[in-house]
Amino acid sequence: MSAVAGEDVVVIGGGFGGLSTACYLADAGANVTVVEKNEQLGGRASRLVSDGFRFDMGPSWYLMPDVFERFFGHFDRDVSDYYTLSRLDPHYRIFFKDGDQVDLVPDLEQNKQLFESYESGAAEELERYLEKSQRNYEIGMEHFVYTDRPRLRDYMDLDVLRYSWGLSLIGSMQGHVEDYFEHPKLQQIMQYTLVFLGGSPTNTPALYNLMSHVDFNMGVYYPDGGIGAVVDGIVELGSELGVEYVTDQPVTEIAGKRGGFAVRTEHGEEYLCDLVVSDADYAHTEQEMLPPEKRQYSQEYWDSRTYAPSAFLIYLGVEGDVEPLAHHTLVIPTNWEPHFEEIFENPAWPDDPAYYLCVPSKTDDTVAPEGHSNLFALVPIAPDLEDTPEIREQYRELVLDDIAENTGVSLHDRIVFEKVFSVDDFTDRYNSMQGTALGMAHTLRQTALFRPPHRSKKVDGLYFTGSYTTPGIGVPMCLISGQITAEEIVK
């Protein structure tokens, strides 16, 4: 008999962390209710549906398929029971703003030839880099991601020393990549995934070279129907396990303690329970839902954190096709350091942005009306930037002009649907601290045991899950966070 069998649990927030926690706890016998602020489940993985177009508003890359397989496998299910996958070819396309264009593809030999064309010996170095990346991934995932080590003493044992020997634990990604490749474009190719972690080459630990194994060796996939189909699959799984879902109920207060909580909402609803898990923004939960004496951290603590970028997003439905864009397309300045500086060092709207274009209609003809294309542009920007209608309009023009200049795709006269989403929207829709699109960045001082804990130190029976906790940012990491939180509760 599980320790939580028969316990009533409320999970606040229906993002991937909350949905995952709910499934694990329901499987352990708890009576679980997910209470979501917005009109749909998925958290930042919301969907925008209008005028025959369907957009994934948040995550759009399906990486680390092993994590999803392991998640569904825990419940004796297969991914294919809930959604189907298509492997993308190319994985993604890069337009460098000096006119150069490259495709990264599923065939490693082709990628090695591409690298060799830029730098003599780079093919061999890519193979060596990926061997290191694979080792970091396999050891890191099993012994440092799935195994939570929330206290310093958890690292003081022989197993940790044995498994960590040889891992890239010291230094930045920039220094690590420079050890293998001299050509700046090859360095950029190996580092673009840092955007998914909310960091820059200079502030992200070298350990995260493991993302290159994910990218080059494991592949990039598209779940048919988009990331929203993955949300639907996990929600369906939760329903099969007995999870109940409530939407359109913003939580305003967590009152009580273990065995006697009352979770109250803006609309006057009250949910009584034995345990509470918050997948809402960690800072918002503590600062807005709890009285001062029950908060683990002060406002000063949250203000002092390094946050992952916010984003300037334009969702576009356009007439005709958008050749030569691929499903995933990156547009990168020859020198991208000023853009990172404008995110982390001197916050400002980037004059020469690096950005990402997603065109799911290249793969999925259900996301746009016939004869039309569905795409969005995402520019990473500093959190907490001033965000006004005038700034948005000016920046919209800058981005559309930049797309036309550097990819050859002119969109201005073909737009039939458009929506802009940026800093203030992240704050309003997701109660996001400083309007970050992702959470706390993965800097050295905000990784592993330096992230906020899953279990509240001040309120017995209150737990946290999602991107602020370990293992961190990204859909796969939030799924794992749900498992870790559930295990902590049962334990």
What does this molecule look like?
The chain is α/β, with parallel strands linked by helices and 491 residues long. Among the domains are: 196 residues, FAD/NAD(P)-binding domain (3-Layer(bba) Sandwich), CATH 3.50.50.60; 108 residues, no CATH class. It has 16 helices and 19 strands. The strands form five sheets. Strands 7-6-15-16-17-14-18 form a seven-stranded mixed beta sheet. Helix 1 packs parallel to helix 10, helix 2 runs parallel beside helix 16 and helix 4 packs across helix 9. It is globular and about 65 Å long. The model has no long low-confidence stretch (mean pLDDT 92).
Features:
FAD/NAD(P)-binding domain, 491 residues, five-stranded parallel β-sheet, seven-stranded mixed β-sheet, 19% strand, globular, alpha/beta
Question: What is the topology?
Answer:
Elements: E1 8-12, H1 16-27, E2 31-35, E3 47-50, E4 53-56, H2 65-74, E5 85-87, E6 92-96, E7 101-104, H3 108-118, H4 122-145, H5 158-164, H6 173-178, H7 184-191, H8 194-197, H9 210-218, E8 221-223, H10 227-241, E9 244-246, E10 251-255, E11 261-265, E12 270-273, E13 275-278, H11 282-289, H12 299-304, E14 310-319, E15 328-332, H13 337-344, E16 355-358, E17 372-381, H14 389-407, E18 415-421, H15 423-430, E19 462-464, H16 475-490
Parallel strand pairs: 1-2, 1-13, 2-9, 6-15, 13-19
Antiparallel strand pairs: 3-4, 5-8, 6-7, 10-11, 11-12, 14-17, 14-18, 15-16, 16-17
